[in-house]
Amino acid sequence: MKYLNEFRQKKLVDKLTKGINHLMADIGRKVILMEVCGTHTMAAFRYGIKDLLPANLHLLSGPGCPVCVTANDYLDKAIAYARKEGMIVVTFGDMVK
To answer: Which GO terms describe its molecular function (predicted)?
Structure first.
């Protein structure tokens, strides 16, 4: 897992962190980035990414990936509609996996 191992290298992490800190100092104001995928939110927490960010850069958890946050009941209804003659249901490819 080439990229996973690269991001665990302290020198690379230090370089990226320093670059982010310089960029945020140049911006000079609060910046909020919204993550929309729960998997990304968990990775930022699990691997300590939030702890590496400067004080003026905030991660905000968004609504979640449409695929991840869709209730089973909603999917059941979509399937029922799709089975009706003349009905077309359009969705994300990931939603039908």
So the answer is: 4 iron, 4 sulfur cluster binding; carbon monoxide binding; iron ion binding
